[in-house]
Fold:
Amino acid sequence: MVFRKGQKVELFRRSSDESWEPYMDAFVGLHGIVTDPDTAINDPDALVEVSLEGKGTHRLPQDCLRPLDHD
Structure:
């Protein structure tokens, strides 16, 4: 999946990535907007910067994110 800047996403599950931190468990189910998709690297393992509603901006693994087509 390639994420675009400004795309709405949901953090729908806990990530299996080693960069996942225990505090991030509280973010599961939240929606946000991609602010930095790291498209220059184009690496599926790269972290995506997402501004989460009410929780600030965080760099998150891609395997826990899914696009929201209709929000």
Remarks:
- Residues 34 and 50 are 4 Å apart (CA to CA).
- The first strand starts at residue 8 and ends at 11.
- The chain has no helices and five strands.
